[in-house]
Every structure is written in structure tokens, then in C-alpha cells.
Amino acid sequence: VSAERVRVGLLGCGTVGEAAARILIANGDEIRRRAGTPVQLARVAVQDTSKARGVDLPAESWTSDAWSVVTDPDIDVVVEAIGGIDPAKALILAAFASGKPVVTANKELLSTHGQEVMDAADQAEVDFIFEASVGGGIPIIRPLKESLAGDRVTRIMGILNGTTNFILTRMSETGGSFEEALAESERLGYTELDPSADIEGYDAAAKLAILSSIAFNARVVAGDVHREGISTVSARDISAAHELGYEIKLLGVAEIQDGAITARVYPAMLPKTHPLAAVRDVFNAVFVEGEESGELMFFGRGAGGGPTGSAVVGDVVEVARNLATGGRAVGCTCAGYAKLRPQEETPVRYYVVLSVADRPGVLSEVAGVFARHEISIASVRQEGQGDQATLVAITHTASEGQHQATFANLGGLAVVKSVDSTLRVEGTDER
Ligand code: NAP
Ligand code: HSE
Questions:
Q1: Strand partners, 128
Q2: Which of 264, 254, 291, 289 is nearest to 274 (CA)?
Q3: Which of 138, 221, 296, 321 lies at a CB distance of 3.0 to 4.6 Å from 300, suitable for a disulfide?
Q4: Which residues line ligand 2 (CB under 6 A)?
Q5: Are residues 335 and 218 in contact, defined by beta-carbon separation less than 8 angstroms?
Q6: Cis omega (within 30 of 0) on the bond before 87?
Q7: Is 225 a pocket residue for ligand 1 (Cβ < 6 Å)?
Q8: Which whole-number Å values give the CA distances from 330 to 158, 162, 229, 421, in the listed order?
Q9: From atom 7 of ligand 2, which residue's Cα is the shortest distance away?
Q10: Cα–Cα distance between 298 and 300 in angstroms, integer?
Q11: 254 beta partners
């Protein structure tokens, strides 16, 4: 480290990198005071050096060779804002090998190869921090790692993807279809070129894996998370949810019970009175339950240059302070691989809609199937008549496996024309 300043090498200058660069330059005075040393953006690697960027740096600071930045002896800290696995992972490992700490927002890397990268940082005895990888500008990783270090977190429930929250909010507020809301999201530029990572829940699953690993001190990877997307949610589901006093949200839920972790992402019914039900549009929020701290909620913008860049620069300040004072950031806190409870054994509640024949005895036949699988029904009501008759039921807690077996059996009953909708119910007092 230079005696006078900490020099930053930035890899990638897209949405996140450009905002981080802008903030580092614009807030230089505050950053110097908070870090206890001046922090200088010294070099930036991009793919195309001829592109115009909103970052005021001399021409010699720019390069298309990211490797030259991570091995540059004049660079003290590397910020990785390229994204994806290749070449981001190799560049980060090379930075560690050169003795440099790294800041990243790369959820894809962390939720797949995170352990290998964290082990390499520990071995090199350098900081590796990643506040921006979950929830963009929302401080959530540092609170879990540091502020709640004295407590036991038992549950995390979050709205972890802005695009899907926008789509479900539009469906809820306009009564429109999934396709209409997706088109609006695309028009407003909220949706990635390939929206499937958002829509199918992959992005939220990656973020939930990172949060679960930290909250439960265990290694949870994206593939461990049970995942379902929102493309099957219909306008009818949303209006039925409203009638019952619920909103439908894409939730990431992770719990630890008797030493086993469950982690799942799916669209679920949430009582309108739950704080997460009020989280609209592209906003994200994470609801955390601690044994001692009780219920906590973290809310804000989960994406975009400003919020994500702010979180990245906050990490740079921590690293710079550590370099100046000889401190170290909190490293990997995972004790080992998690014992994961299979989704079939996870306790859940369901909302179920069945199209049924409208004649005596139907309700008792349907109730009999629930009873055979030892599922207690919390409420049931008939809507419509004749050909339009539907039964809407909400169950008490039973395992996912019991529910799936029930739905399969219901589909085989002569009196049930179709199982139209099945959605979990989350956020009620019942566990
Ligand atoms: P982006 O806009 O696509 O920017 C990527 C940048 O990386 C571009 O500047 C690109 O250069 C550069 N790049 C690509 N390959 C390179 C290489 N081999 N060497 C040097 N530079 C290279 O991506 P982003 O949205 O900023 O996302 C960056 C990271 O932040 C990802 O891990 C993402 O998951 C995470 N993140 C993003 C957000 C968000 O709101 N966007 C929120 C939270 C986390 P060119 O500009 O020359 O093409
Ligand atoms: N595509 C993500 C979202 C933003 O919609 O929340 C980056 O994590």
C-alpha cells in the first residue's frame, strides 16, 4: 500500500462499475475521512476502451487487459464489476495471488464457487467483501455478519428480485396478465435482455443461497435452493388473493430448524398485513427473524447503478481502512456444508383452487382426500355455481410431500374437473 493513498483497480465499467467510479471520484473527501486515507481510482479495465463513459480519468488509466490490473504492483484493491464466472473468478483469484483484497457484486460467482474463492482469500490473508451482491443498495450482508453476530438467525424471508416484484405489483394494481406486466417491465427497461434468470427465480435463488450461507453459517449454493418462477401466476390468482386479504409475491424463504436448513424461492400468498406485502415495484426487502433480536426488516433498491455502486464503494472504504490500519474484514463464517431438508419434507401451507362438479357430496369427497394425507383444512369456500363451481381451500401446515400427494389424488377424483391453482401461503403466524 502506498504511504499516501489506496489505489483502486476497477474491472468493468457498466451499470455498477461506472456508478462506483463516479461515486469514488465525487465523494472523494468523505471517503478519505471515513477510510482514514485518500482512495484513488487509478485504473479501469473494460472490454471496449473506445466507448464513452461518464468517468473522468486520463486516457492512460483505461485498458482492455484486466489481467494487467490485477497483477499491477501499483494497485492496492481490485473491484470486480464484470459479472459471471469466466473470467471474473480467475481474475479475482489472480488478485488474491498478488496480495490484493477484492470487492465484488457478483452473486452468480458467490452462489456457485463462493467457497473456493473465499478459501483463496483466507489463504492469501486479504479481504474479500461483497455487500452489493444481494439487495443492491440495501445493507444486509454486513448486518448479518457483524451486527447480528451475537444472535441466532432462525429465518429469512425476502423479496430479492426487483423485476419480478415490479411485474407482480403491476398485476396486483391493474388486474392485468403476467404477459402485459412483463411487456411494461420491458418497456421501462427493468428487464434484462434474457428475462428468464429473473422470471424463473434463478436470480433470487442465487441471492437466497448467499444470505442463507451467512445467516446460518453453512455452505448453501444456488443449486440447493428449491426454485419456482412467476410465469404461472394468473390475474385470477391475484384477484382471488385480494379477496382473501393476501398479495402474491415472489419470496425467498430460508429457515433453520433442528440443525437442518430449508431454502426455497417461489410465488406465495402473503397476508396484506405482513410488512413484505407493502413492498411495491422494483423495491427489494429482507425480513429477518433472530432468536433474540426478533423481527427486523431491510428495505431499498435492489438494483441500479447508484444503489449498487454505493454498496460497492462502502466495501472499498472498509478495505481501504483495513489496509491503512492493518485490520481485516470478517471473512468466511461458514462452518461446513449445510444439512439441507428436502423440499418434500418442508412444512408449508397451501392455497388450492379446484374446479368441481356442483352436486351434493363433492365437498366431503374432496375433504376426504385431504384427511387421508393428514392435512387439516383451515378454510374452504365454494365460488360460482353449476359449470363454474370452484372450491378455494387454505390448508394448515403439513409437509410439501403430503400436499403434492393430495393434489395428485384430487386431480384423479371424478368430481374434480381440474386443480386450477396451488400456491404456498407464507407469513402467517402458523409454522
Ligand atoms: P454490465 O453493465 O454488463 O457491465 C459489465 C462490464 O464489464 C462492462 O463495462 C464490460 O465492458 C466489462 N467487461 C466484460 N468483460 C470484460 C473483460 N473480459 N475484461 C474487462 N472488462 C470486461 O454489468 P453490471 O450490470 O454492471 O453488473 C456487474 C456485476 O454486478 C454483475 O456481477 C451483476 O450481477 C452485479 N449486480 C448488478 C446489479 C445491477 O443493478 N446492474 C445489481 C446488483 C449486482 P464494456 O463496457 O466495454 O462492454
Ligand atoms: N435483475 C435483478 C433484479 C437486478 O431484477 O432484481 C440485479 O440483481
A1: 102
A2: 289
A3: 138
A4: 161-163, 192, 198, 203, 302-303
A5: yes
A6: yes
A7: no
A8: 23, 28, 33, 45
A9: 303
A10: 7
A11: 156, 263
Partners of 78 in beta bridges: 9, 102
pTM for the predicted model, two decimal places: 0.96
- Find cell 452489493 and name the residue: 132
- Residue carrying the nine cell digits 393434489: 407
**Is there an atom of ligand 1 within 6 Å of 161 CB?**
no
Please tell me the distance from the alpha carbon of residue 320 to that of residue 428, in angstroms, as a whole number. Answer: 44
Query: By the 8 A CB rule, do 74 and 56 touch?
Result: no
Residue with cell 473491484: 79
Question: Which one from 89, 107, 145, 207 is the annotated catalytic residue?
Answer: 207
Residues 4, 367: Cα–Cα separation, whole Å: 75
User: 210: which 3 cell numbers?
Assistant: 448467499
89 is catalytic: no
What are the phi and psi torsion angles at 407 (to 5°)? -65, -40
pLDDT digits (tens, 9 = 90+) for 236-279: 999 999 999 999 999 999 999 998 999 999 999 999 999 999 99
Alpha-carbon distance values, 38 to 30, 41, 53, 62, 330 (Å): 9, 10, 23, 21, 23
The CB of 106 under 6 Å from ligand 1? The reply is yes
48 Cβ inside 6 Å of ligand 1: yes
HSE value, Cβ hemisphere, 13 Å, CA-based, for 118: 21
pLDDT for 193: 77
pLDDT tens per residue across span 283-311: 999 999 999 999 999 999 999 999 999 99
Three-class SS state of 134:
coil
Instruction: Give the 3-state secondary structure of residue 395.
Output: strand
